[in-house]
Amino acid sequence: MRVIIEQDSGSVARRAAGFIAALLRSNPSCVLGLATGSSPIGTYQELIRLHRDEGLDFSRATTFNLDEYAGLGPDHPQSYRFFMQRQLFDHVNVTPDHTHVPDGLATDFAVSCAAYEARIRAAGGIDLQLLGIGSDGHIAFNEPGSSLASRTRLKSLVRETIRDNARFFGSEALVPRLAVTMGVGTILDARQCLLVAAGRGKAEAIRGMVEGPITASNTASALQMHPHVCVVLDEDAASMLERREYYRDAERCQLLLEAGERQALGLPVAG
Ligand code: F6R
């Protein structure tokens, strides 16, 4: 797991957007897995800026969102489809038919979830999955206790998530009790995962994810099994990590390697 600690949420957003932009530039037809919630908003704002100022092209990309509230349609202001339109899709040149969000109004969720998995497979799989993390360690809506091999399905939300998300709905009573969500297994199939987190409220979940045991009690900890995960944190979200200094040292080495500064690392230089 590559752990990058940035000073504040603004630099987290710029760093995360930089990874997504690099992928879009090297592979314009890439398949992006996208997230909702407050965590990725800054990243989307930076991607919109890169589209506007530097012509970052989304026209050939395909997107699949992690989840959707069950019972909310695309026009509901708290639905994740609505969120994606407002926060990203309406401001970049993504092709509408290439964007996918699970259907919150399906009459048969087993069928629509299987179809969602099939669409991901038909698109060639997800190249990069953007993730946030819940204060209980969930990724997508894989609440504590979810199978680490789970696939897209209907899932009930735990009370902590309902409480956390009440801020968007105005009251806990209005938060849907069920969501359609990619499973942990679906997320682990992505070729690359990029998780962003900011603020003290995420510090404990982040410690469990990065330094705790792999456990269904913190479904993000399953990312420890994935060979290509990058976690971008602000100081607050990183504040409970015991190996903080090691992650900073490792990142300095990584940046020197990427810059070709092999000598600075005591490595042999060709020619
Ligand atoms: C959203 C999602 C959730 C959120 C998590 C954190 O698509 O999958 O796992 O990433 O609940 O939410 P925020 O970012 O609002 O703190």
Q: Tally the structural domains.
A: 1
Low-confidence stretches: none
How many whole angstroms does the radius of gyration measure?
Answer: 18 Å
How confident overall, as mean pLDDT? 97
Remind me, CATH topology? Rossmann fold
Biggest sheet: strand arrangement: 1-10-9-6-2-3-5
CATH architect. name: 3-Layer(aba) Sandwich
By oligomeric state, this entry counts as: single chain
Share in helix: 25-40%
Label the overall shape: globular
The number of E-state strands comes to 10
State the name of the first-level CATH class.
Alpha Beta
Task: Note the beta-strand portion.
Answer: 15-25%
Question: What ligand molecules are bound, each kind once?
Answer: fructose -6-phosphate
Largest sheet: 7 strands, parallel
Gap from first CA to last CA: 32 Å
Compute the number of helices.
Answer: 8
The string of secondary-structure elements, in order, is: EHEHEEHEHEEHEHEHEH
Q: Care to describe what's here?
A:
The structure is a single chain. The mean pLDDT is 97. Helices cover 35% and strands 15% of the residues. It has one domain (31-133, 140-241): Rossmann fold (3-Layer(aba) Sandwich). The strands form 2 sheets. A 7-stranded parallel beta sheet has the order 1-10-9-6-2-3-5. It contains 8 helices and 10 strands. With 271 residues, it is α/β, with parallel strands linked by helices. Bound molecules: fructose -6-phosphate. Residues 35-39, 66-67, 132-134, 138-140 line the site of fructose -6-phosphate. Fructose -6-phosphate binds at residues 35-39, 66-67, 132-134, 138-140.
